[in-house]
Amino acid sequence: MGNRRFTYLLFSFALFFMAAISSCQKDSAVKSPDPSTTTVSADSTVLSSPNNFLAVSGTLKVKFNDSTYTFDAAADSIAFINVHSDDNSRYFGITAINKDHTMSFGISSAGFPYNNINRAIAGSQLIMSADTKQPALQLSLSRYSAPKSLGNINLIEYNSTKELAKGTFYTFMAKDDKANSPYYRVEGTFDLKLK
Fold it and tell me: What are the backbone angles phi and psi of residue 95, rounded to the nearest 5°?
């Protein structure tokens, strides 16, 4: 179980790292990189992957409690990433950070992305803050949710002529990784485009 927790933490770090990099690219008005040459390298465990994309338009909506938070790719940074680790594990996911750097979100699943799949969640993280120095709320994947489910990501469309990625998700998150910690259901939709 400790190995699984490490994988969750590692992939959450990779998602957050990609969000920070894509945010810096968006903030400095750098053109989106050529998808055929984009790579990820967070540390020695994460290897290069040619299929990471920075969305140019579209939205990612995240519903938490009674509020819905929207990331808009025209202003915020939203990336669809594919990660291949040293142990030959493959993950795909979505990571986002708003232009004010006060909110970030990441979600991942094991395996390869393709059209019409419904996969279990492997990692998720939501960070909200009034300023960049101190997070006001930090949630991550909860192994202790009552239905004993980590959640699912439903990828309806992926890397087609019209869509980068389109689908829905839900996951269960908590403030810490303890059995008696309250957990929250976080759900949402994404409709991301390269044009």
Answer: -135, 145
- In one-letter notation, the amino acid at residue 153 is I
CB 183 within 8 A of CB 140: no
Nearest Cα to Cα of residue 117 among 168, 74, 65, 154: 154
The most distant pair of C-alpha atoms in the chain lies apart, rounded to whole Å, by: 46
Query: What are the pLDDT digits (tens) for 155-180?
Result: 999 998 878 999 999 999 988 877 78
**C-alpha to C-alpha distance for 40 and 58, rounded to whole angstroms:** 22
Range of the domain at 180: 2-193
CA distances from 72 to 79, 126, 191 (A): 11, 16, 10
Give CA–CA dist 121/153, Å, rounded.
6
Token readout for 46 is 């994460």
Domain count of the fold of the chain: 1
> If 0-12 CB within 10 Å is exposed, 13-18 middle and 19+ buried, where does residue 153 land?
buried
**pTM beyond cutoff 0.85:** no
CA atoms of 107 and 80, how far apart (whole Å) = 10
CA distance 162 to 25: 23
Q: Where are the alpha helices (DSSP H) in 28-153?
A: none
